[in-house]
Every structure is written in structure tokens, then in C-alpha cells.
Amino acid sequence: MTTIIIEENSPQAKQLLEYIKTLPFATVIEEKKKSFREAAAECNAVSVDAFFDELDDRIKKRFVNA
């Protein structure tokens, strides 16, 4: 199986997508665009502040206990 991502941002892309939909061996799965917050929540993203707080804690623990 091969995955191809086509963004419908031009008339040519829309034409290509419509053509692909007619092919008997192709399946088109249209995915609604997610907002940044939805995409971040889906992958359990953390804020930059939380990331650096955790990084600082790990660095301190690593070198204090070394």
C-alpha cells in the first residue's frame, strides 16, 4: 500500500484528486484538518515551559547525583 497526501490548494490538485477517486484500485480518505490544539492534544504535546522545566529538573538530578 502507498499513501499519497494531496492538499487541495490549487485547481490542478483538485482535478487530480477527482481523477483518483474514479480509479477502481484507489481509495481516497478525506481527513478534516485539525486545529493546532487538537493535533497537539492528540500527540500528548506539552508546552515549551513544561518541556524546559522537566529538562532542567533532569539535568539537575543527573549532575547533583553524579
TrEMBL record:
It comes from the Bacteria. This is Uncharacterized protein. It comes from Dysgonomonas macrotermitis.
